[in-house]
From TrEMBL:
Keywords: Signal. Residues 1-17 form the signal peptide. Residues 30-65, 255-281 are annotated as: Disordered. This is Uncharacterized protein.
Length: 281
């Protein structure tokens, strides 16, 4: 009789001890420590074994990095003052200088205005002046790392003849300059030509649109748009040099030309220029 009662008492005692609140707290703490250990283990694996992350996140990051590495940085040019941006100084360069720039500058965009001013043709000259001055201010203020140059084949320019050979290489028709300027935008020997006869504003808008496109492709940049309606006129050099008789293009003597031909000249690159639709002309 005593044995069954004793066994029952032992069973009840063990049951009470097992279900004691303190015991339940210990169990919770033990399970919690196991969970935190698993979390720490997971974080350790995530930190030191990144290949176990989801493949989607890796692909996105890698793709962004690759896209970023595709861009290049232009060679930074000296920044101009506000006064210099509004007053275009006449570039003292020759066709040989421009050719050297086009051959050597492979990280910068080179913009060249080809034009010809005429004696007593003030309306025609004003179109040239508008394109020169307004484009220079636009590039100087909003596209400061673009190289600006000019090819002036006017008769007062004693270096006009030096641009003839380069014009042939670029397939620029100098005769078209009788009706209006031509803008050449080039980067790494490829680019686009823009020209107009009467509407300089549309010409400038089309040129800047293409410049912004090239900047985005090469540098990943989106510079602000220019206020091209704010017209800035470059100087008309016939005002300072107005001969009585009509001028002819200066050409050097045959002896001087022969000396230059006798010099060893580097092989020119193959320039590739295309022309957009002339809807803006």
């Amino acid at each position: 009789m005593l044995k069954p009662l004793l066994c029952l008492a032992v069973i009840l005692t063990l049951s009470i001890c097992y279900n004691h609140p303190y015991r339940q707290i210990q169990q919770r703490l033990y399970r919690g420590s196991q969970g935190s250990h698993r979390r720490d283990s997971d974080s350790f694996q995530n930190r030191y074994q990144p290949h176990q992350k989801s493949s989607n996140s890796i692909d996105v990051k890698t793709k962004k990095k690759q896209e970023k590495n595709n861009f290049i940085k232009p060679y930074p040019l000296p920044r101009k003052s506000e006064d210099e941006c509004f007053n275009l100084s006449y570039p003292e360069e020759t066709g040989e200088d421009l050719k050297e720039i086009l051959e050597s500058e492979n990280k910068n965009i080179v913009v060249t205005v080809w034009y010809e001013n005429f004696q007593n043709e003030w309306a025609q000259n004003m179109v040239n002046q508008d394109v020169q001055g307004t484009l220079w201010r636009c590039l100087c203020e909003n596209h400061p790392d673009i190289i600006y140059s000019e090819a002036d084949i006017s008769h007062y320019n004693l270096n006009a003849y030096t641009y003839i050979d380069l014009a042939k290489e670029l397939e620029i028709e100098l005769g078209e300059l009788n009706d209006g300027p031509t803008i050449v935008v080039m980067s790494n020997h490829t680019g686009m030509t823009f020209r107009t006869e009467e509407n300089p504003l549309k010409l400038l808008k089309a040129t800047e649109k293409y410049i912004r496109q090239i900047e985005k492709e090469l540098y990943g940049l989106e510079n602000p748009y220019c206020d091209l309606k704010h017209q800035i006129l470059a100087d008309n050099h016939y005002e300072y040099y107005d001969p009585i008789e009509m001028l002819q293009m200066y050409r050097p003597h045959k002896e001087e030309t022969a000396k230059k031909v006798g010099k060893k000249q580097s092989k020119s690159p193959n320039y590739q220029l295309s022309e957009p639709e002339k809807a803006f002309s």
